[in-house]
Design a protein that fits this description.
The structure holds two protein chains of two kinds. Chain A is α+β, with helices and mostly antiparallel strands. Chain A has one helix and eleven strands. The chains are: A alpha+beta, B mainly beta.
């Protein structure tokens, strides 16, 4: 009986493990998503050579250009497919033209968060006529990664925006 | 896949770096308030084994720091005349910070010039600064209040201030008086000059304490009061036109019955036009010498000539100036005024001529 109970407990333990893992997948998912804010800063090495590096956004005042980086890391043992990152341009910030980047992704933009289109294909109705939307009018960015995100891999999406 | 990841990151950095070329210097800033929280919200959607997964969201925030900066514009070359009061230099102060700031306003006379302005209403050197209390963009004495303490301007706010002084009567033509308005931004928290935060950069996050970045904490504006004065000289001379014996001959003398011509000459050697109110001349009693009428062109009494221009004429009748030509006599006093004469231009002269007969 004791042995039988141990078997039952073992089965429950396995089920709990499975359920726990599933619960983790539902609440945390297979992807760990991170967003960072950085600014570009000039540094000088020991040889006096100048270079520009990204450092965490410290003093940020109006006019500062912030580099936003979003990383999606697949922490599961299965590939993640149709990975799509949506990122509204933060309030009080203006997207820097041509700054959105994401290797292996198709990037599209939206003025309202509903209709997305590649750069240059959005229009704004003004004075009764349509005109191409300017990059600073883009309010949403979407990265659609064309390939599966393999276990352990990280997809990177990045854009620059200036604090108004 | 780690290698792939690194490659992606490298490519990403390279492209972003390239993307930044030519983009710097774009002006988007319009002053997001200090202390505001900026949050980036990213959401990822994906499927696993064809099953849509619950979207994952990540937020990152930073606190907008305080940028201290302002502009001071204005100050000009203002022409003044000796003795003029409440002469004004106008300045506009704009707080281009993203936070409210105090400002000290310090007006002063500068050295190295020709003279100092006097503090309004006093004979002592000095200048005062006044706010545009009336809001009309022009100095209104008695309404616009003197600034004697720090002023406060909200983020992006602006205000007009006037540096005012009286021109000393002793100032001379073409002299300059340089005046300055020195402005310093101060922290409302302690009314002391803003101190830049030189400590480590702090991202702040939600509700963080803003750090202070001082772009410009002081500024000076200056202006010049330039004396433009009329310098008038008046001379009176006489000549004999004819006498009863020699007539108009060269030997004519100022004998009884002789016709004399008098000339009052107004010469302006200053740098600005002099406005004339009137020219008066106390004539001798008629028993001695008698004012002649109708001697000039058109039976007129007075000849007026500006510079070497064509003379004009008027009638100086005894009594009120009925024809309103600007010339008349009241007893023995001859008066010539507008419209006969109105002003004397710089480096010019006006001659007033009339004739009398010696009794």
């Amino acid at each position: 009986m004791i042995k039988g109970n141990r078997k039952v407990l073992g089965i429950f333990a396995l089920m709990a493990c499975a359920l726990g893992s599933q619960a983790f997948a539902q609440t945390q998912g297979c992807i760990v998503l991170k967003s960072t804010a950085e600014i570009e800063k000039e540094v000088v090495n020991d040889k006096g050579e100048k270079s520009r590096v990204l450092v965490p956004a410290g003093k940020v005042v109006p006019g500062t250009e912030v580099v936003w980086t979003v990383t999606a890391n697949n922490v599961c043992k299965q590939p993640s497919d149709k990975v799509t990152i949506n990122n509204p341009v933060p309030e009080h910030m203006t997207l820097v033209p041509n700054s959105a980047f994401g290797a292996g992704s198709d990037i599209s933009y939206s003025l309202d968060g509903q209709k997305f289109a590649p750069a240059g294909q959005l229009t704004v109705r003004e004075n009764g006529a349509d005109r191409p939307a300017r990059a600073d009018e883009y309010k949403h960015i979407r990265w659609e990664f064309k390939n599966s995100l393999q276990p352990g891999a990280t997809a990177v999406a990045r854009f620059r925006a200036v604090l108004n | 896949m780690l290698i792939v990841h690194k490659q992606i990151r490298r490519i990403g950095l390279a492209v972003v770096a390239v993307g930044s070329i030519g983009l710097s210097g774009q002006a988007f800033a319009d002053g997001t308030p200090s202390g505001d929280t900026i949050t980036n919200t990213a959401t990822v959607n994906y499927t696993v084994a064809l099953v849509p997964q619950t979207p994952i969201t990540a937020n990152t925030s930073f606190t907008v720091d305080t940028i201290v900066r302002f502009t001071l514009s204005g100050g000009a070359l203002v022409n003044v005349a000796p003795g003029q009061i409440n002469r004004v230099q106008m300045f506009t102060l704009q707080n281009t910070s993203n936070a409210t700031s105090l400002f000290t306003l310090t007006p002063s006379n500068l050295g190295g010039d020709g003279f100092d302005m006097n503090a309004p209403g006093t004979p002592a050197p000095g200048v005062n600064v006044y706010a545009d209390t009336s809001g009309d963009g022009a100095y209104t004495p008695g309404t616009d209040l003197q600034v004697t303490a720090n002023v406060s301007l909200a983020a992006t706010g602006s205000a007009i201030y006037f540096v005012v002084g009286d021109t000393p009567i002793g100032a001379t033509d073409t002299q300059d008086a340089l005046v300055q308005l020195a402005v310093e931004a101060r922290n409302p928290a302690d009314a002391l000059p803003w101190v830049p935060d030189l400590g480590p950069d702090v991202q702040g996050g939600v509700g963080g304490t803003p750090q202070i970045v001082v772009s410009n904490g002081t500024a000076n504006g200056s202006g010049t009061f330039h004396i433009e004065s009329a310098t008038l000289a008046i001379t009176k001379s006489s000549s004999v036109i004819s006498d009863p014996v020699n007539l108009t001959g060269a030997a004519r003398k100022a004998i009884p019955g002789a016709v004399m011509q008098y000339q009052i000459l107004l010469a302006n050697t200053g740098s600005t036009s002099a406005t004339l109110q009137n020219v008066t001349d106390q004539l001798p009693p008629p028993a001695t010498i008698l004012f002649r009428q109708g001697d000039f062109t058109g039976a007129t009494d007075i000849e007026i000539q500006v510079g070497a221009g064509t003379p004009t004429y008027c009638v100086a009748q005894d009594g009120p100036d009925i024809p309103a030509d600007g010339c008349f006599r009241t007893g023995n006093v001859l008066t010539v005024q507008a419209p006969a004469i109105t002003s004397v231009a710089p480096a010019s002269q006006v001659a007033v001529r009339f004739r009398m007969t010696i009794q």
